[in-house]
Each structure stands twice: as C-alpha cells, then as structure tokens.
UniProtKB/TrEMBL annotation:
GO cellular component term, pick one: cytoplasm
One Pfam family matching this protein: LRR_13
UniProt-recorded name of the protein: Disease resistance protein RPS4B/Roq1-like leucine-rich repeats domain-containing protein
Disease resistance protein RPS4B/Roq1-like leucine-rich repeats domain location: 50-240
Keyword Repeat belongs to the record: yes
Transmembrane listed as a keyword: no
Taxonomic source organism: Vigna unguiculata (Cowpea)
InterPro entries, A to Z: LRR_dom_sf, LRR_domain-containing, RPS4B/Roq1-like_LRR
This protein's UniProt keywords: Leucine-rich repeat, Plant defense, Repeat
Amino acid sequence: MSVLQNLEELSFEDCVNLITVHNSVGLLDKLKTLSANGCRKLKTFPPIKLTSLEKLELSHCSILESFPEILMKMENIRELHLGYSLITELPLSFQNLTGLRTLDMFYLNSAIVKVPSSIIMMPELTDIFVCGLKGLQWLKQEEGEEQMGPVVLPSKVEWLSVLSCNLNDDFFSIDFTRFALVKELALHENNFTILPECLKQCQFLWYLNVSGCKHLQEIRGIPPNLRHFFAKKCISLASSSKRMLLNQGLHEARSTVFCLPGAGIPKWFNHWNRGTSISFWFRNKFPDKVLCVLVAPIQDNFFRSRVFINGKEYTGYSHHHLTGKHHVYLFDMRELRFSNSPYEEPFESEWNHAKVTFPRGKYTSINHAKIGIHVVKQENRMEDVTFTDPCSKTKSDVDDINSSDSQSTSC
C-alpha cells in the first residue's frame, strides 16, 4: 500500500473473508473515501491519519470490536454512520474528527457502548442519532474534567435522538445542561423514570418525544419554549405530571402539539362533545388562537384532522400520532398545515360555521372519541365567537346541525 500514496478512493466493501487491514492504509494522506462496509470477518481496523478523508464507512462489520484510533485532526469528515458491529467503545481520539457534524450509531451488538462524554463538545457536531443499543454509558474524559470550573461552554448539538437503548436515569447524569442548545430531543422506548428539572435550562428545545417510555413516572421540568411533546404509551406517567402538561397557561401562551395518556378533556376548555366532529361559529375573521383536543383510543399511527368553514375544506396534510389506549391529543390549530390559511382570508361579518372533524380510519375507535374546542380570550373578540348555532332557536335545531354536513350557516 505504501506505493499508492496518491490513491483517493479505497473500498473493501463486502469482502466477506477480509480479516485484517494493513497498517499502511491508515497513512494514505490523499485518500478521500475509505469503505469497509459488509466485511463480516473484519475484527480490527488500524489507526488512521488520513487528513484528506471525507467519507469513512464501517457498517455491517459484524465482529468489528473497536473503532480505529484517530492519530491527528481530520477536518473533512462531515458524517459518520456506524451500525451492525461489535464496537463497544469510541476512543477518546474520536474527538480528532473535528469537522464531524452528524454521528449515527445503530444496532451495535455489544452489551454496552461506552462513549466519552467529551464527544458532545466536538466543535461542529450538531446531530446525534443512536438507536437499538443494549446500553449507552457516558465516560468522563479524565479525572480533571470535573475540575474545569463552573463555567462550561454548551455543546453545539441541536438534534439528539437516542432510541431503544435501555437508558435509565443515569443517562441524565452527564450534566445534561451541556445540551443547552438542543432543539429536538427524541428518547423513545427507554427505561428512565424521570425527566429531570434541568430540562428547563434547554431554552431552545421545541420538540421532545418520550413515546414508549413505559417506566416514565415524573416530569420535573418543562422547557420554556417546548411546543411539540409526545408521550405515547407512557403508561406510568403520574397524574401530577399530566396536569402540568395540560396546564391552560402553557397552551395558551405557545403554539403546541401535545400527546399523552389520558381519558378526559381539560376542564378549562370552552366546549366539548362526544363524537368525531365539533363546531363553533365566528364573525369577520377566523379566531387568532383556537385549541383543539381529541381524546380517543386510536390504533392508527397516522390519522388526519380536517377543518371546514362554511363547507369549504381548509386543511392540507396533517398527521397525528395516537396509539392504543386512551390518549389526549391537544393542538393549536395554527400548527395544522392548511392548504389555504383561514387566518389570512376575510370572512362574512355574519356568522360563519367552522367544523373540525377526524375522519374514521381503518382502525380508529370512533365510538369512544371526545373532542373539545377552546378559543383563547386574550387573543380574540369573544363576542364574535359562539359554540352554539346562532341561527337556531331550539336545541333540536342545534342537534340537527351538529349531526349534518351543512355547507354554510350564515344568517
């Protein structure tokens, strides 16, 4: 290999009988692409000092036990995908991949994968995706790490996803405040019992998903700008945490989409009924802030909500996620992807009929659904909003309208 110093691409891909790679491969400083994907008998990989390397592929090396040592700074690798191997630990020298922006680790077959906690401080690393590990353990860089003083720069990680990795409460022991800049956090199907109070310090966090965390009992802090929160199948979640997540002030102040276990409409909602649709009436313009809640046992992974105004459909594509037993799905209607926005359209000065409906899906348990509507007073003229048909003089008329698909109720 030493005679191939100008080589830019080298692939051992799917060399199923390859056992070792010569040390000289790690010294080809013109090399831009190095792939050993699918080398099922490869046990070790030599240290590398490849300053020009842009792409390193080591997935599907099913008995590879260690990630190669990085002997010097390598600035050109932007993404690294590691999967289906026996890698048990990322070396401290991993930090020499100074240009790395995206790290994926998935379905590593070792018992526990050890990761130096200092990796989250890599200068360009913004996206971390980890899935299907038997365990994940953060390691201190060295004994002196705790003596760095109280001022620690935050990690640049903005998207952190650790799914189905058997995480327990120790996962948050690495001083989670270092993730102060994280915007999206996905922790599906893990075993921790609490979400710690330090999440309040993640002021940029707008998306949090802990669905399938069946042991989660307590949420001690809600990030100040959290808008999307999903806790499907969190069957152990305490009532106190549910009340905190359904707080009126929280949802009136933000444009939220929340899903969590529950069987009741929040008491502060203006109006609710049983069934698959609900109506309200407004004058002049569509209310600036309308919250909708659906409570139902839904088996579809995806189902749609639809909005009609005077018989005209305004909803574009929207998807919601409820699964299994009764869940509360609460959302701000501004979060729907309208095909043509009702917020920008002038309406009649007379009463206009708005109807929100959830069409029946193949597995949707329609018979037990409850739907609620809440119009936020601080952002709307409540004299221009009503929850009973202003054109109807008797209750029977109201019932007839609610059960029909009337196209318009201007009067």
